Amino acid sequence: MEGAEPFREFVVKLHGRCNLSCAYCYVYELRDTSWRRKPAVLSAALADRLAERVAEHAARHRLPAVRVVLHGGEPLLAGRQRTGHLLAALRAAVLPATRLEFAVQTNGTLLNPAWMELFHRYGVRVGVSLDGDRAASDRHRRTRGGRSSHAAVERGLELLSGEENEALYGGLLCTVDLGNDPLDVYEALLRYRPPSIDLLLPHATWQFPPPGHDPAAAPYGRWLAAVFDRWYAAPVRETRVRLFEAVMDLALGGSVVTESVGPDAPPFVVVETDGSIEQPDSLKAVYDGAAATGLHIGADDFDTAARHPLVREGRRGLEGLAEECRRCPVVRLCGGGLRAHRYRPDTGYANPSVYCADLKLLTTHIRDRVLADTRALAGRPA
Amino acid sequence: MDLHELGDERLDTLPDNALAHSLRRLAAEDPPEPGGTTVAAGFSSAL
């Protein structure tokens, strides 16, 4: 498979619907409408086929490990029996030649002891989406009937953060809302003792900019920098924050593979409930069908997906950025930001991010602080 | 900035804060977990 890197992570849309109706959801509320034409749940037959495809890909590339992430919609809507079937099929097909890591990304409302028993059986680590305290989460994370989801999520997190389950606790995924105070949000998330937090910018493009978009003021960059300063100044690290750690590592000369910053895209692929193979699901925020490849696990292997022109285009790193970005002094820190955020209808993805000013503010803020402190540690002038 | 200027002994004496964690991870060539934006981190650093 000349020139195409194999996938190491498979994001599986186990269930294509959700029991929440979050206003910013890229699956249902933004540009893509393909969920309406896809089945609600991945069938047992497709689960078996998926397991064969993952095993085939791992064996062909002699991958030491692969990760399968159960995703949605809300994946727990698939039920424990169907979820157990998929996990068992993957184990049977992939082990022992390749190590298999399982994760699930859930809204947390359906977590209960029976789910945790299943997750323990298969070693499934759990990530939960939460935007802060009740007031912060209620801005967007409500049921279709408009009710708050926070109490149900809180029950799930109490279960997940308990001593018997903490080994499976992956972390929290929080979407930034400028209407929420950054420090209040961080403190609220910390109360659930997450081993890791990731802070996401709400998906947006130049065609549909984010709320409060203001390149002159860079409000998202300032919001994130406020959280960084609070997190960074703690005498003992309270949790990991992936976005900040990634920028710090890049500033200090390390290499980082994340979707949101840095020059390299992570090697993951998405499989939908109908078995179709898609590009990173954040592209659903761009336009209807933007994530599609036309490939299907029934007819196509993952090598074919890795060679697909759209997939390769999305993994070109710095070469795939706009000329303006390639000439920018901070491009190695921000990497042009998330691909979806660069989109304009007339020029496609060859643009700076709609969050360019915010990313510049945040990444230079982190870089300057970290380099000054590191130089001081080394006994050199800042 | 060359991390080797700090030296392993100096790294061992740093407080347990965010910067120290990053410096130690870089010195150990253990990058942060790879991943997409729609999945929480904290699953593994092995991939």
Describe the structure.
The complex is a heterodimer of chains A (382) and B (47). Chain A has one domain (9-357): TIM Barrel (Alpha-Beta Barrel), CATH 3.20.20.70. Chain A has 13 helices and 10 strands. Chain A has helices spanning 44-60, 80-94, 113-122, 134-138, 150-160, 182-190, 219-233, 242-251, 302-307, 309-314, 323-326, 331-334, 356-377, and strands at 9-13, 65-71, 99-106, 124-129, 169-175, 196-200, 240-241, 268-271, 276-278, 292-296. In chain A, helix 1 packs parallel to helix 2, helix 7 (219-233) runs parallel beside helix 13 (356-377) and helix 8 crosses helix 13 (356-377). Chain A starts with 8 loop residues before the first strand and ends in a 5-residue tail after the last helix. The model of chain A has no long low-confidence stretch (mean pLDDT 94). Chain B is mostly helical and 47 residues long. Chain B has one domain (1-47). Chain B has helices spanning 7-13, 18-27. Chains A and B meet through strand 2, strand 3, strand 4, strand 5 and strand 6 of A and helix 2 of B.
